[in-house]
UniProtKB/TrEMBL annotation:
The gene is gp17. It comes from Bacillus amyloliquefaciens (strain ATCC 23350 / DSM 7 / BCRC 11601 / CCUG 28519 / NBRC 15535 / NRRL B-14393 / F). This is Phage sipho_tail superfamily. InterPro entries: Siphovirus-type_tail_N. Residues 29-132 form the Siphovirus-type tail component RIFT-related domain. It comes from the Bacteria. It holds the Pfam family Sipho_tail.
C-alpha cells in the first residue's frame, strides 16, 4: 500500500503542490521510485593479455525516475480536459525539478517521457510516467549557503548524511577550518559538480584542502577590497577571469570532513557554496 503523499514541482524557480493545482484537481500522485545507479566501467583490452585492464574510474550515467498517478474525471468532458492539462503540466522543453512530500529535502532534475494509460472506466485512468534523470544524481533542494541546517522547513531531512553531533558552517574567518561534504560522492568541479568558493583577504592566498591534496594559489596580491571567486574550475578576481595569475589548481571536496588551510595572506574570510549529491 502506497503512502499518501504529494508531488512538489519546481519550474522557473516557482514551486507548486500537485494537490493544489486547480487544473489538475482530479489527478492524484501515488508514489515514486528511482532506478539503481548506472555505472559505466572504463576498461581496456590488450591482445595477448587475459582479462581487461582498469583504465580509470567508473562514471555514473543517467537514471530513470518513475511516478505513478491516478486520474478521476467527473465526466467525459472533464476527462478530456484533464488529459490536456496533464500533458501541459508534465511536458516541458527544459528540465525541471520534482520531489515528494515524503522526501522534501531531496529533488530530481528531470524531463518527462511519453507514457501509456490504463483506462479503469470511462472517466478514470491510471498511468506511470518515466522521467529521464540526466545527471544520474539526487540532489539537495538547498545549497550550503541558502538555508540554515534545521529540519523544520523541508530544506534538510534525515537521510542526507548530515552529522548530528556538530553544527555545520560554510563561512569561515580563520586560516584553518573543516568543511563537511554530505554527498555520497566527491564534489568535483571538473565533473561539473557545483562548487563556489568566495574569498576576501590581504596578500597572495593559497587554499589547500589537506584531505584531498588540492591546492589553489593566486600569484597576485589581493587588497582588503578585492574578492576572489572560484566558480567551479574558473577563477575570478573582482569579476574578471584571472586563471593566468593562478597555478590552475582545482579544489574538490571529499566525502565527509575536509581539512582546509589558507596561507600567504591575512584576514581571510571564505565561504563555500555547494549542493550535496546523492546516489
Amino acid at each position: 500500500m502506497s503512502i499518501l503523499q504529494d508531488l512538489i514541482v519546481e519550474k522557473n524557480g516557482k514551486e507548486q503542490l500537485l494537490s493544489e493545482t486547480v487544473d489538475l484537481r482530479g489527478l492524484q500522485f501515488l508514489d515514486m521510485t528511482v532506478s539503481a545507479p548506472s555505472i559505466t566501467q572504463n576498461y581496456l583490452t590488450n591482445p595477448g593479455l587475459d582479462g581487461q585492464i582498469e583504465a580509470g574510474k567508473a562514471v555514473y550515467g543517467a537514471r530513470t525516475v518513475s511516478a505513478n498517478f491516478l486520474f478521476k474525471g467527473r465526466d467525459l468532458f472533464d476527462f478530456e480536459l484533464g488529459c490536456k492539462a496533464i500533458h501541459a503540466f508534465l511536458f516541458e522543453r527544459e528540465a525541471y525539478h520534482i520531489r515528494t512530500s515524503l522526501m522534501p529535502g531531496i529533488r530530481y532534475r528531470v524531463l518527462a517521457k511519453p507514457y501509456e494509460t490504463t483506462r479503469i472506466n470511462m472517466v478514470d485512468m491510471s498511468f506511470t510516467v518515466e522521467f529521464d534523470l540526466p545527471s544520474g544524481f539526487r540532489e539537495a533542494v538547498k545549497t550550503t549557503l541558502e538555508a540554515p541546517f534545521v529540519f523544520n522547513d523541508g530544506s534538510w531531512q534525515i537521510g542526507m548524511n548530515l552529522p548530528s553531533d556538530k553544527e555545520l558552517s560554510y563561512v569561515f574567518n580563520t586560516s584553518e577550518f573543516s568543511v563537511f561534504n554530505a554527498s555520497d560522492i566527491t564534489i568535483n568541479p571538473l565533473k561539473y559538480n557545483m562548487l563556489e568558493i568566495a574569498l576576501t583577504c590581504v596578500g597572495k592566498p593559497v587554499i589547500t584542502n589537506k584531505t584531498t591534496g588540492d591546492v589553489f594559489k593566486l600569484n597576485k596580491e589581493m587588497n582588503a577590497s578585492d574578492a576572489l571567486l572560484l566558480d567551479g574550475f574558473d577563477p575570478y578576481l573582482n569579476n574578471s577571469r584571472c586563471g593566468r595569475d593562478t597555478n590552475h589548481g582545482v579544489i574538490t571536496l571529499a566525502k565527509g570532513w575536509n581539512q582546509f588551510l589558507i596561507t600567504g595572506c591575512s584576514n581571510p574570510v571564505i565561504a563555500f557554496n555547494t549542493r550535496f549529491l546523492y546516489l
